[in-house]
Amino acid sequence: MLDKTLFAVRRFRQDIWLWLGSWKLSIVLIVLAVLYYLLLAIWAASSPPHVVRNIASLMPFWLLYLLLLVNTGTCLWRRLAILKHDLSPRSAFCDRPPEWTVPVGPEMVEIDLKRAGYKARQDGPDTGLTGSRGRWSALGTYLFHGSFFLIATAFLLTLAGRNETTFQVAEGEIFRSGPEFVVRRITPEFWQDQLLFTQLEADLGWEDGSRSITRINKPVMTGPASFLRLSGFGYVPRYELLDKQGQILDSAWVKMNLFPPGLRDWFQVEGYPHRFYLTVIPDPEEQDGRLVTRSLNLNEPVIDLEVYRGHLSLGTASLSANQGFDFEGLTIRIAEIRYWGEFTLVRDPGVLPLFAGFALGLIGLMLRLPGKRSEVVFRLAVEGEPARILGWGEMPAGLEEDL
Amino acid sequence: MNVTPALMLAAGFIALLAGVLGVVSWRRPNAPHLARMAGGAAWLSLLFVLGLWIARWIEAGHLPIFGTFESALSIAAAVLLIPTLFRFLDRIPASATPGACLVAAAVLFHGRLYDPTPYALTISERSWVVDIHAIVAWFAFGMLAVNAGYAAWLLLRKGNPGPARPLTGTLTAGFLLHSAMLATGSLYKFLLFGVAWSFDPIETLGFAAWCAYGTLLHMHLFAKWDGRKLAGWCLTIFVLLVVSYRGIVWFPVWSTYHIFDMDMRIHLTGSEQYEEGERVD
Questions:
Q1: A177, part of any domain
Q2: Closest Cα in chain B to A56
Q3: What single-letter DSSP state applies at residue B65?
Q4: How far is CA A2 from the centre of its chain?
Q5: Three-class SS string for chain A?
Q6: B62 touches chain A (CB under 8 A)
Q7: In the Cβ-directed half-sphere of A151, how many Cα atoms lie within 13 Å?
Q8: Do both A244 and A326 map to the same domain?
Q9: What are the TM regions of this chain, as residue ranges (chain A) (predicted)?
Q10: Percent of chain A with pLDDT over 70
């Protein structure tokens, strides 16, 4: 009874090992991946992106990825002996009778072998004309499939350690809550009068005196896995609150969501019950009796202001630079408008291994391009036998036509 | 010179003529003049499309990557160029060309339906990484279109079975290029949004097509799929590839970043707010 049980367990282990490393399982899993991702794409047509991302993080997906990795790892492990053989030097690779032969014309020359995709060479008067193809192909297979593990590790590192913080820094402001830098200048540029950026970059100055430019699509590396990128843009007006005598009671820069033009935002001054609602017309011109903007560039901007105390509106005004609006014994004016940049600091320990994995996978595929390894040698006709090519490894498809 | 939908239509008809003549010549191997006419039409189509592509580059002031209209030109140019290039290198026979011409015609007919206005590139498309990604994508599609074209030849031709090496060669090369396209796209996604993958439908469709081609390569290597059987599946999966490349415009604009037709969306600064539609006041 015990013997039967032990035999069954051993047999099961062998079967599982074979099954986990079988190419048929690979096919089933990859086809499942195709179906899963097609399903995601169909869902994306009717569901918001965050819902699609939630679906993609469900257990069936994780199980699929895990099985694919186990299957890939088992396949690679089982084929290590083949890898060792396929990477062996030519002398060892061809150290047995030829596996196939192809009759050829009596005058085999290098160019014929090259046409068939071989690296041909004359190895010497004794060995004659030889050819080699796909010398590193087996390594390519391992690099490509091995990259899956690096990519999987990268995704796990990202899940475990990714951190993103967003903050707004105005021109001239020093940011100190992380990498310390000053925003020297923010430069937006728009195409015609469209809400279409053709340029948005921030000129940053660092603690050590160096400078760098960051754009929306060009993050600055601030650490081994940290990237600072410019991710947004807006207007930051500086208000001045004055008393009846014209003395400035308060003045500050206020980062507001006033871009794109038409957006309305508000601020309060500490100690005062009033709320100030603003809309910016960045490049004003009069059309049909009202102010519209010619473009999105700041060019003598006008501020549409409305002041509230509680629910009571105290009035509206359209103010140019340093024009004031009087209310309840006070005057408010917008002295200046600058830009603020929204910066995102991304710490992602998985991103560098991810792209290393991609590079490794692509190198593996390039090594695989010539096909499986094949070594050939040309033999002259002797004693009634025609001239022929002797081959080891895989006989490339179409070789006879090529030669 | 402005590249107009009418010119694209003309280019599409020339490519269609080349493709139809070529396919007919497969069924009538005893009429070599048909094959010659098809070859001539294919050359004319290639030169015409390349000319339009260069004209569009000059007109727009940037590589033609922006919008369905001009990307159709670029893809058609790649699809027509690759079989010609590889014929010179003696790697792909002329038999792959008619299928490629039919694909180019379909792409041109579809692309001409979209806004032809040349827009300046937005900041999110101004990067050499984007240029490389686009070029790799065009050549990936072109290589797999040639693969499909050759597969069609194997299936439709009369006579002895043709050599299988161009089929497997283009399949492998196309898979490599498609992989590179996904990798460069992921790299740029990270540069632009700070995330390398977000299940955007362009990514999921591209990955599905990648897996499908990977399955086919495994079936060729392990189950010894070859000849007509492999060719049939190459054609089938190519349909998925076409959907992944050109079908993205059928998705709602809020679901994907990869719709670059300005009449269909306005690009904001690349903030994730675009996912939620309009900014909240």
A1: no
A2: B199
A3: -
A4: 56
A5: CHHHHHHHHHHHHHHHHHHHCCHHHHHHHHHHHHHHHHHHHHHHCCCCHHHHHHHHCCHHHHHHHHHHHHHHHHHHHHCHHHHHHHCCCHHHHCCCCCCEEEECCCCCCHHHHHHCCCEEEECCCCCCEEEEECCCHHHHHHHHHHHHHHHHHHHHHHHHHCEEEEEEEECCCEECCCCCEEEEEEEEEECCCCCCEEEEEEEEEECCCCEEEEECCECEEEECCEEEEEEEEEEEEEEEEECCCCCEEEEEECCECCCCECECEEEECCCCCEEEEEEEECCEEEECCEEEECCCCCCCCEEEEEEEECCEEEEEEEECCCCEEEECCEEEEEEEEEEEEEEEEEECCCHHHHHHHHHHHHHHHHHHCCCCCEEEEEECCECCECCEEEEEECCCCCHHHHC
A6: no
A7: 21
A8: yes
A9: 21-43, 55-77, 142-161
A10: 95
- Classify B54 as helix, strand or coil: helix
A325 and A387 inside one domain: no
CA distance A124 to chain B (A): 29
Chain A, chain B: beta-carbon pairs less than 8 Å apart: 171
Dump pLDDT digits (tens) for B18-69: 999 999 988 888 888 888 899 899 999 999 999 999 999 999 999 999 889 9
For tokens 């601020």, name the residue.
A267
- Selecting from B123, B124, B163 the residue whose C-beta is nearest the C-beta of A398 gives B163
Residue A217: burial class (beta carbons within 10 Å; 0-12, 13-18, 19+): buried
Residue pair B55/B74 in contact by the 8 Å Cβ criterion: no
Of B186, B190, B219, the CB nearest to A27: B219
Total domains, chain A:
3
User: Would residue A274 count as lying in a domain?
Assistant: yes
Give the residue on A whose Cα is nearest the Cα of B191: A217
Contact A348, A225 (CB under 8 A): yes
Whether residue A160 lies inside any domain: the answer is no
H/E element, B105: helix B97-111
Strand partners, A326: A331
Same domain, A69 and A97: no
Domain encompassing residue A54? 13-78
The Cα-based distances of A90 to A95, A126, A133, A142, A395 in angstroms read 8, 16, 11, 20, 16
How large is the average pLDDT for residues A108-115? 72
What residue type is A371 in one-letter code?
G
Distance CA A310, CA A320 (A): 26
Q: Could you report the predicted ipTM of this complex, rounded to two decimals?
A: 0.89
Torsion-angle region of A46 (φ positive above 0: left; ψ -120 to 50: alpha; else: beta): alpha
Q: Which residues of A touch B188 (CB under 8 A)?
A: 217
Which of these, A94, A131, A135, lies nearest to A109 by C-alpha position? Answer: A131
- Please, which residues have CB within 8 angstroms of residue A278's CB and are 6 or more apart in sequence? A237, A256, A258, A264, A265, A266, A267, A303, A304, A305, A334
- Cis omega (within 30 of 0) for bond into A260: yes
| Statement to judge: residues A74 and A19 lie in one domain | yes
Are A267 and A334 in the same domain? Answer: yes
**What is the pLDDT at residue A108?**
63
- Are A33 and A65 in a shared domain? yes
A58 and A111 inside one domain? no
Q: What is the pLDDT of residues A51-82, one digit of tens each?
A: 999 999 999 999 999 999 999 999 999 999 99
Cα gap B156→A141, rounded to integer Å: 33
- A365 contacts B198? CB cut-off 8 A: no
Does the pLDDT value for residue A293 go beyond 90? no
Cα nearest neighbour of B201 on chain A? A41
